[in-house]
Amino acid sequence: MRNRFRREVESGRTLVVPGAANALTARLIEEAGFPATYVTGAGVANTFLGVPDIGLLSLTEIATHVTAIRSAVETPLIVDADTGFGNAINTWHTVRTLERAGAAAIQLEDQTFPKRCGHFSGKSTVAAEEMVDKVRAAVEARTDPDLLIIARTDARAGQGLEEACRRARLYREAGADVTFVEAPQSTSEIEIISSEVPGPKVLNIVQGGKTPALPLERVQELGFSILLYANLPLLASIYAVRNVLGSLKVGDELTAAQPIATWSERQKTVRSNFFDDMSGRYETATPTEAALSRDEVVLGN
């Protein structure tokens, strides 16, 4: 799987990759036919802890989420590993841990700790030389040579685009397979990154963020390997849940027009048929089958 994903990233074709904060969202992304899923640190912080993306997650918490998502889907996972959770040695340990958890690619960034969302103000970066050491440690740590190391720089915000591009080139020279200049602020800046930074690159589109959205065809022309929508599914979920809860609170009748899935759609997403078929091959019912029976009682079905 990692080898196939590496070849796709290096093919010259732009891969559109949405983000997931949990296994259920990853199932939906796979079901929709996307080539990979981005395990978003911001999304995990928002959904698991109910906090903003300000460096409050631990490596253990991220690894636990990656393990769960890896068990639920077959598509490759790009894992947001923030700053590597420390220095170069911590980064080595982070890569080992997330590779075992099932990552196909691991993203590291050059912010100081605690990091902040790439589209927040008030970010700062470590010295480029420190990040170069982290990239080298990450490359040394992987046991599968097809595991991709993605090196992100947040230098655009505080030090300008020229420095961000310089850092991306340094990280590429240090062994990063893919580079990621975060939060360019105009189409012209995106075009400069395209011309100044060699090799596979990530372009991250954040709704309400600093980077303008471009048509997929233009992103393809500019040579970006991954067009990332890290938090789009999460934003859609918040919007839909808030609307349904608002209707429920004022006593409106829930109708088919409401943005909710059907019972059968839900069960399809969590592979109920797969587990039901499995239960038929054994003498005792699986926990899933028993749980479904309980749900049917509650629903009056």
Your description of this structure?
The protein is an alpha/beta fold and 301 residues long. The chain has 14 helices and eight strands. It has helices at residues 2-9, 23-31, 41-49, 59-72, 88-101, 128-141, 155-159, 161-173, 187-196, 216-221, 232-249, 263-269, 272-280, 287-299; strands spanning 15-20, 37-39, 77-80, 105-109, 148-153, 178-181, 201-204, 226-229. Strands 1-2-3-4-5-6-7-8 form an eight-stranded parallel barrel, surrounded by nine helices. Strand 6, helix 9 and strand 7 form a beta-alpha-beta unit. The longest helix has 18 residues, at 232-249.
- Give the DSSP E fraction (strand runs of 2 or more residues): 5-15%
- The strand count comes to 8
Rg over alpha carbons: 21 Å
Note the run of SSEs as H and E: HEHEHHEHEHEHHEHEHEHHHH
- What integer is the average pLDDT? 91
**Global morphology:** globular
- Class by helix and strand content? alpha/beta
Main beta-sheet strand count, sense and barrel state: 8 strands, parallel, barrel
Low-confidence stretches: 294-301
What is the strand arrangement across the widest sheet?
A: 1-2-3-4-5-6-7-8
**N-to-C CA distance:** 41 Å
Number of helices, where a helix is a run of at least 4 consecutive DSSP H or I residues: 14
Q: How helix-rich are the residues, as a percent range?
A: 40-55%
